[in-house]
Specification:
The chain is mostly beta strands. Helix content is 9%, strand content 43%. The chain is globular and about 55 Å long.
Length: 170
């Protein structure tokens, strides 16, 4: 039995604010255009650049409210990492002409720094827009104690913040 894989990974910038709408069934969907660019030197040594535009579609599902997350946190110019699958669609327009569309059905989205402050906005809201296996998660600030009553005292590790000699490689 042969297997197949339809997986797209993009890192790019939003061309415009996302458009979010509701279907007749009440499901929410967000669409946005993501620009990826590449540059090279041609045979004469001149720098060339090409930008590709990708139409991305993000759906809310039973286990993920990713379209709502896009609506709330993603803005024009933001740098995003998106992962999903490529889909080709065709339909008849009002003049009965056959139209074609290529879309990225987004399953995972991570806001990256850069653009119009996407990284700062994401960090400031304690939010990481990431869908993992169909589940989106928002990162909340860690509590010092279970139950959430603690503060910034870190009683379990009194010397942890004062120790400057850590073993972290960065």
């Amino acid at each position: 039995m042969s297997r197949s894989l339809n997986k797209v990974t993009l890192i790019g910038n939003l061309g415009n604010d996302p458009e979010v709408r509701s279907t007749t069934g009440g499901n929410r969907v967000a669409t946005f255009s993501l620009a990826t660019s590449r540059s090279w030197n041609d045979a004469s040594g001149s720098k060339q650049e090409k930008t590709e535009w990708h139409r991305c579609v993000v759906w809310n599902t039973k286990s993920s409210q990713l379209a709502d997350i896009v609506e709330k946190y993603v803005k024009k110019g933001d740098k995003l990492y998106v992962e999903g699958r490529i889909e080709y669609r065709q339909w008849q327009d009002k003049e009965n002409q056959t139209r074609y569309s290529t879309e990225i059905n987004v399953r995972e989205l991570i806001m990256l720094g850069g653009g119009s402050g996407g990284g700062a906005r994401a960090a400031g809201s304690d939010f990481d827009a990431e869908s993992n296996g169909g589940r989106s998660r928002a990162a909340a600030p860690a509590k010092a104690k279970a139950g959430g009553a603690g503060g910034d005292d870190f009683e379990d590790f009194p010397g942890a913040l004062a120790d400057e000699d850590d073993d972290l490689p960065f």
